[in-house]
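User: Show me sequence and structure for the first protein, then do the same for the second.

Assistant: Starting with the first protein.
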Amino acid sequence: MRSGRASTTRVTAIEMEWKPISEAQVLDLINESRKCMNPLERRFWDAISFHPEKWQQHPYGASGSGFWAVAVIGRTVVWYNDIEHGFNRSQYLKFGQIPQDGYWCNQDDLEVQIKQLMDFVATG
């Protein structure tokens, strides 16, 4: 029991300190990652990316009004988890919503997700 209470207190303290990342900060991360991409990766990125927009995700994204989605291809969304500080990709059913089972806490740079997505598209 005692450890459960301590855990709850710790989570509450972390949540109180955490602040959602701004659109400008996400754009900075994208621009830095784009510099690391080779020409083929940049063309792929340019084809699937869009201006960052908040997508809903419950329960983890609720306190920050969602997470920043930055690209879509088919039913896959690439998004930034500002709680864990990394880019992720998830399957979605409804545009604008990252499903609960689509929550990931990768701490990848964007170019890593783009390379993996390109490999997936190329090889299935």
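Switching to the second protein now.
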Amino acid sequence: MITPPRTGNPTPALTGTVLLCMVAVVTACSHGPNEARARNATTTPQTPMTAEQNRTRNEADVRALVDGLATAIRARAIDGVMAVYSPDLVAFDIVPPLQYVGAASFRKVWQEVFALYQDPIQYEVRDLTITAGDDVAFSHSLNRINGAMKDGRQAGLWLRWTAGYRKIHGRWLIVHLQASVPVDMANGKPALDLVP
């Protein structure tokens, strides 16, 4: 055990040791918390989105997809229309057959629609309602296509439109859709004159 001298000034060796210890303590106290804060600032992940924020963002993304589809239809942009569909799309449309399997088979429907109408084609989506989870969503709306046909007749109709979506590789795509019009059960004919 080392005992300090009882009288006089401390030895230079003891003074140097005490000073060195004090510098180490001051350094540790002054740098330690700041370094810990810096480490936390760089390694703490950002606060994840809440379920409500995620739902809101997904619904906005689906709404943007539907808006893009309507814009592409009005522009007769077949590639823009087809870009919203998953390759394995299943569609129940208002024209035969009972179902279309695969986006490639549904492309022909849109090509035929574009061939029937003169410019401009009007397309409206009304009362769009969307429910979206993390990777699955659905929507329903009343949609109207309207315009002058190539033969000069004015043609337009409202239809009921329901779509199912999946987020595939981070992008929402339509995997199922159903378009329908009401039918007058007394005569078996579609009721094309109904308006919302």
